[in-house]
Design brief:
326 residues; alpha/beta; 13 helices; binds phosphoric acid mono(formamide)ester; Rossmann fold; binds norvaline; 2 domains; 13% strand; four-stranded parallel sheet; 9 strands
């Protein structure tokens, strides 16, 4: 690269960096390809720093509040460890203990918490509640999963695919299963980075057409395909990545039995993955149910990168926090 190009790239990075300060991280749809690329690059650098034993602490003295209205292993631990590694501290806030759980308005909660905290991470049911929290908070709000989206997971997933394949553009990702929060964020993430995404779900469980439309618009702009099908084989054929998630998400426990019947033909198993490229990777956001959406031989087999995805939650979220909470 010539000195001129190096300067141009540095100037662009500086602009993106400035533009991310103070922003909320609610859905990938709010960010451009340049911004998400910047965050993925930073995540890779933060991973290298962490693995080298060095420290990087831009958030010294800052506190992240973490509101949980649903269970969590990865999100809770990776955010709490992540903010600690960046020099700050995390505070776990269960909705069972907060006045929010007894009916205090979200708008009041947002304004009060903004007086104490430097950032708020929330995992809850309704995406609208998160938007309302963000609208009334003066500090950045991060979506740690809603019924509609799981953007932090998909940042970790994109980082994992980049590591495994050395590229994103031009790959084929097959998502086989429920058109849920993961499906929605993967649609947006894949479309933004020029990854062809094939989504195979049973009739009645396909992703929200609003999100599909958004993803298709992005795919047009960034040069990839979005295909919604009810045929798992069409999705898996020649795929670089095969991704699945639970059939019944948190909050849908009552539908578990009925869903198990409907989704049975959508199981990711040895027969399905043999349609993929020989060097395909298997992905799952976890927690997984072996014998339901995926068989043990696939998730515990050589092609599985599920624990890299879990690790990358830490690095991807550190990149997000270090960019928006400064
Ligand atoms: N993948 C994920 O978000 O896991 P947790 O529910 O354990 O946070
Ligand atoms: N779709 C799953 C993802 C869990 C990380 C759920 O919402 O329960």
């Amino acid at each position: 690269m010539s000195a001129e190009v190096v300067k141009l790239v540095a100037d662009q990075d500086q602009q993106i960096k400035e533009g991310l300060k103070g922003r909320d991280f609610l859905t990938l749809a709010d960010f451009t390809e340049e911004e998400l690329s910047y965050l993925l690059d930073l995540a890779a650098r933060l991973k290298a720093i962490q693995h080298s034993g060095a420290t990087f602490q831009p958030l010294k003295g800052k506190t992240l509040g973490m509101i949980f209205e649903k269970s969590s292993t990865r999100t809770r631990v990776s955010f709490e460890v992540g903010i600690y590694q960046l020099g700050g501290q995390g505070m776990f806030l269960s909705s069972r203990d907060l006045q929010l759980g007894r009916g205090e308005p979200i708008s009041d909660t947002a304004q009060v918490l903004s007086r104490y905290l430097d950032g708020i991470m929330i995992r809850t049911f309704s995406h609208k509640d998160v938007e309302q929290l963000a609208a009334h908070s003066s500090v950045p709000v991060i979506n740690g999963l809603t019924d509609e989206y799981h953007p932090c997971q998909v940042m970790a997933d994109l980082q994992t695919i980049q590591e495994q394949k050395g590229q994103l553009k031009g790959l084929k990702l097959a998502f086989v299963g429920d058109g849920n929060n993961m499906a929605h964020s993967l649609l947006l993430g894949a479309a933004t980075f020029g990854v062809d995404i094939y989504m195979a779900s049973p009739e009645g469980y396909q992703p929200d057409p609003k999100v599909v439309e958004l993803a298709k618009k992005r795919a047009e702009k960034y040069g990839s395909r979005v295909v919604i099908t009810d045929d798992p084989k069409e999705a898996a054929q020649n795929a670089d990545v095969i991704y699945t998630d639970v059939w019944a998400s948190m909050g849908q426990e009552d539908e578990q039995e009925e869903r198990a019947k409907t989704f049975a033909p959508f199981q990711v198993n040895a027969e399905l993955v043999q349609l993929a490229k020989p060097d395909y990777v298997f992905m799952h956001c976890l927690p997984a149910h072996r014998g339901e959406e995926v068989t043990a031989d696939v998730i515990d087999g050589d092609h599985s990168v599920v624990f890299d995805q879990s690790e990358n939650r830490l690095h991807a979220q550190k990149a997000i926090m270090a960019s928006i909470m400064v």
